[in-house]
């Protein structure tokens, strides 16, 4: 009986893990729509997004990455807290975000990767101080400033809601150098440890 129970638990867990949509799929280029509290199946979607993100060893996941063009993000960068202390206690659900850059500031280049572009990593310039207004999973409104790498994670995920991926921010020369890799992703030539959906 214990074995059967373990089977049921594992099967339930696997059902929560959604496939991640890969570069080249049209949903990643759609502008996500804001949602209302009565959006069908929202709490299950959020739970599924958490499980999907953790299963893929990610620190952020936007709804378009699981095929839903809606303004929902989950973030948990706490695994990076030893290197980036600002990421401690960073677990949050972000719905209908509005992002604002704080004053004039230089852009800093740091390496980024993405679950929708497995096997790639590029230096991306972003600001490191932002203000975010958003709703949590209970549709309670929040406004807060974020700095450092956590601000970068948030910008990366908000980009997904705008139909943008991080490679859109790299230099023209880098785009040429990684063009074949991007084309291979778009053709479904993907190697990763999680389930994927291709164009």
Total number of β-strand segments?
9
Strand content: 15-25%
Encode the helix/strand succession as letters: HEHEEEEEEEHHHE
Give the strand order, joined by hyphens, for the main sheet: 2-3-4-7-8
The averaged pLDDT comes out at 93
Instruction: Give the helix/strand class.
Output: alpha+beta
Main sheet specs: 5 strands, antiparallel
CATH class: Alpha Beta
- CATH H-level name... which superfamily? Peptide deformylase
Low-confidence stretches: none
Helical amount among residues, as a percent range?
25-40%
Radius of gyration: 17 Å
Cα shape:
globular
Could you tell me the CATH topology label.
Answer: Peptide Deformylase
Distance between the termini: 42 Å
What is the architecture at the second tier of CATH?
Alpha-Beta Complex
* Total helical segments: 5
Count of distinct structural domains: 1
């Amino acid at each position: 009986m214990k074995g059967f129970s373990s089977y049921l638990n594992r099967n339930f867990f696997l059902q929560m893990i959604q496939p991640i949509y890969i570069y080249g799929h049209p949903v990643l280029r759609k502008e996500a729509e804001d949602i209302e509290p009565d959006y069908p199946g929202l709490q299950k979607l959020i739970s599924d997004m958490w499980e999907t993100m953790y299963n893929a060893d990610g620190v952020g996941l936007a709804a378009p990455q699981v095929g839903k063009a809606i303004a929902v993000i989950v973030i948990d960068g706490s695994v990076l807290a030893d290197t980036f202390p600002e990421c401690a206690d960073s677990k949050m659900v972000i719905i209908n975000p509005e992002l604002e850059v704080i004053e004039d500031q230089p852009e800093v280049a740091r390496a980024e990767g993405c679950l929708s572009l497995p096997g790639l990593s590029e230096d991306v310039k972003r600001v490191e101080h932002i203000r975010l207004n958003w709703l949590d999973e209970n549709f309670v409104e929040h406004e807060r400033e974020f700095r450092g790498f956590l601000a970068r994670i948030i910008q990366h995920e908000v980009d997904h809601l705008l139909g943008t991926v991080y490679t859109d921010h790299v230099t023209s020369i880098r785009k040429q150098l990684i063009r074949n890799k991007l084309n291979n992703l778009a053709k479904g030539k993907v190697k990763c440890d999680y389930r994927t959906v291709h164009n």
